[in-house]
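// run 5 | inverse folding | seed 20
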């Protein structure tokens, strides 16, 4: 009696291992429905081979425990390819290895396969856990009745107490296995839904922020156009309003261009950029900001000679400006901003280091994600644009940071020779 329980327990461990394996492998593989079936088969075959080669199998436990649980599981959840393979495998292994009663096995396994497939195609999508468990237990009860009926009919006998132990184990394990598998699947589906929800949320936020920023210049433009319609307006004022209106529209236009830079970053007229000269030219732009919070700016060009990268100067400037602004904003109480350039045989390295507030691990992970900002007036779009522009110019960007110590950002571009 104890040995029967031990067999069942071993079987249960194998089945649960399969569930866990599927849980671990499936999300990584990002598979389609068809591949999922194949994955199920692969895991199933692997574990069956282990089971068959390592465990001694009692034919009755094989027939009354493993076959119904696994056939029901594969057919109800995974549909016909996986469950047909399982069905064939069970008939073959049952007959040649485990030594189950062939007629009872064929009839029983076919019945449960068909019931499981019926469930899969008709009810799986709409079933709650309780309905699923109820159907699974019902199908297995039908299987057991069919199998035992034929088994007795063909003149075999089983001690009733042993039968009771096996069946009790089967029903308990069915409940446990189906519960586990249902949770596994639900977990997976929830992750997917969450991912989608986040994506849509982001799109919504992006749209909202774009419209907000564009509405401001459009509103001013409208104001000026309205003023142009007033009577008794002199020529000079009219011209001024017209210029303001055009400015507003240009501003709106440039906002759209900036966002498109992110949405579809492309380098239109790539030409060699003199890295050192470009960086030196940027300093007058950032020094007013740095003076306000008494920040010292150091520029270190490790090489004397000029070197070039290929790209669009305006976008290159935009990247560096964003990074320098972030560095300055990270040092509200003053500090040192160091920009270092370095070049080797094939790469150009630009390092922007500050001695500011730094970031913790979590923040470091999230930078570059849209709308991630820790600033009251931040947009959380700066680094997102930087990352996409660096990428489109064939570069790479890495950040390292320590809370309270500062941040180092290094960009690597391919040297243009
Ligand atoms: P924003 O500057 O509008 O907040 P960014 O995309 O430029 O948006 O930056 C996102 C966030 O990354 C910042 O809010 C800040 O928390 C963090 N960050 C970026 N650069 C630095 C830096 N040099 N030091 C500390 N934190 C930084
Ligand atoms: Mg910024």
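// decoded
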């Amino acid at each position: 009696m104890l040995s029967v329980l031990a067999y069942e327990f071993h079987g249960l461990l194998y089945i649960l291992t399969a569930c866990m394996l599927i849980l671990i492998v499936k999300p990584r593989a990002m598979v389609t429905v068809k591949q999922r079936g194949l994955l199920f088969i692969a895991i199933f075959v692997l574990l069956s081979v282990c089971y068959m080669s390592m465990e001694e199998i009692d034919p009755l436990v094989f027939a009354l425990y493993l076959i119904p649980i696994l056939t029901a599981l594969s057919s109800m959840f995974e549909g016909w390819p996986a469950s047909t393979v399982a069905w064939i495998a069970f008939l073959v292994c049952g007959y040649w290895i485990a030594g189950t009663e062939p007629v009872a096995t064929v009839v029983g396994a076919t019945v449960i396969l068909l019931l499981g497939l019926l469930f899969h195609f008709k009810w799986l999508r709409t079933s709650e856990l309780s309905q699923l468990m109820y159907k699974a237990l019902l199908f297995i009860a039908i299987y057991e009745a069919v199998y035992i009926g034929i088994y007795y009919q063909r003149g075999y006998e089983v001690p009733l107490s042993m039968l009771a132990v096996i069946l009790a184990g089967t029903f308990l394990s069915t409940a446990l296995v189906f519960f586990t598998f249902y949770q596994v699947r639900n977990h997976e589906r929830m992750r997917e839904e969450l991912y989608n929800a986040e994506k849509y949320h982001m799109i919504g936020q992006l749209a909202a922020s774009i419209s907000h920023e564009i509405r401001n210049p459009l509103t001013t433009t409208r104001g000026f156009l309205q003023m142009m319609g007033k009577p008794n307006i002199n020529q000079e004022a009219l011209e001024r309003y017209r210029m303001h209106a055009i400015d507003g529209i240009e501003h709106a236009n440039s906002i759209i261009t900036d966002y498109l830079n992110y949405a579809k970053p492309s380098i239109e007229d790539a030409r060699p950029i003199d890295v050192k000269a470009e960086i030196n030219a940027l300093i007058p732009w950032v020094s007013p900001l740095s003076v306000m919070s008494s920040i010292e700016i150091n520029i270190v060009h490790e090489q004397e000679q000029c070197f070039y990268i290929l790209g669009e100067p305006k976008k290159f400037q935009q990247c560096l400006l964003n990074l320098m602004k972030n560095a300055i904003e990270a040092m509200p109480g003053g500090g040192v901003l160091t920009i270092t350039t370095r070049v080797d045989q094939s790469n150009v390295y630009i390092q922007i280091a500050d001695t500011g507030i730094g970031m913790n691990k979590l923040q470091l992970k999230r930078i570059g994600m849209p709308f991630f900002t820790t600033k009251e007036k931040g947009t959380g779009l700066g680094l997102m644009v930087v990352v996409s522009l660096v990428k489109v110019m064939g570069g790479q960007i890495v950040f390292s940071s320590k809370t309270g110590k500062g941040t180092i950002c290094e960009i690597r571009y391919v040297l243009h020779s």
